[in-house]
């Protein structure tokens, strides 16, 4: 089955004469594509997948400006949030605040999505 209908002879002759194709109107396919992609994502279990970008955006809201400018989330892997820290003094403070930060993250995003927080210098 073809996804787009075959172009009429008139359009093909004009395209050959002009040297290029006029763009086809594909607006009627947008709805179909959206529904197909939605069904595929749901079938693969990606529709309800946890979005780690939300955690990265929420980091600066949860910490003050000084810590936010010296530490940033790098990756959320296997439910462990890794934070890259620039200074050892900030690392020390974050280690002391780890319990509070983890609790806030779990309250906001759920304990099933964030299990631990790890800080690394770099």
How would you describe the overall organization of this protein?
The protein has 122 residues and is of the alpha+beta class. It folds into 2 domains: 9-44, no CATH class; 52-121, GMP Synthetase, Chain A, domain 3 (2-Layer Sandwich), CATH 3.30.300.180. It contains 5 helices and 3 strands, in the order ααααββαβ. It has helices at residues 9-18, 27-44, 52-62, 65-70, 88-109, and strands at residues 71-77, 80-85, 116-121. It has a 3-stranded mixed β-sheet. A hairpin with a 2-residue loop joins strand 1 and strand 2 (80-85). The protein is elongated, with a radius of gyration of 25 Å. The relative contact order is 0.11. The mean pLDDT is 84.
Our estimate of the beta-strand percent is 15-25%
Order of secondary-structure elements: HHHHEEHE
Q: Could you tell me the CATH topology label of the largest domain.
A: GMP Synthetase, Chain A, domain 3
- At the first level of CATH, the class of the largest domain is Alpha Beta
Arithmetic mean pLDDT: 84
Biggest β-sheet: strands ordered side by side in the sheet: 1-2-3
Amount of helix: 40-55%
CATH superfamily of the largest domain: DnaA, N-terminal domain
If you compute it from the alpha carbons, what radius of gyration comes out, rounded to the nearest whole angstrom? 25 Å
């Amino acid at each position: 089955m073809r996804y787009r209908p075959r172009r009429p002879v008139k359009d093909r002759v004009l395209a050959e004469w002009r040297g290029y194709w006029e763009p086809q109107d594909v607006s009627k396919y947008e709805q179909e594509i959206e529904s197909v992609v939605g069904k595929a994502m749901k079938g693969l279990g990606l529709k309800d997948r946890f979005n780690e970008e939300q955690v990265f955006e929420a980091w600066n809201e949860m910490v003050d400006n000084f810590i936010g400018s010296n530490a940033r989330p790098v990756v959320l892997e296997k439910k462990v949030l890794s934070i890259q820290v620039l200074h050892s003094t900030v690392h020390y403070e974050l280690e002391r605040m780890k319990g509070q930060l983890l609790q806030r993250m779990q309250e906001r995003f759920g304990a099933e999505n964030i299990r631990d927080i790890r800080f690394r210098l770099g």
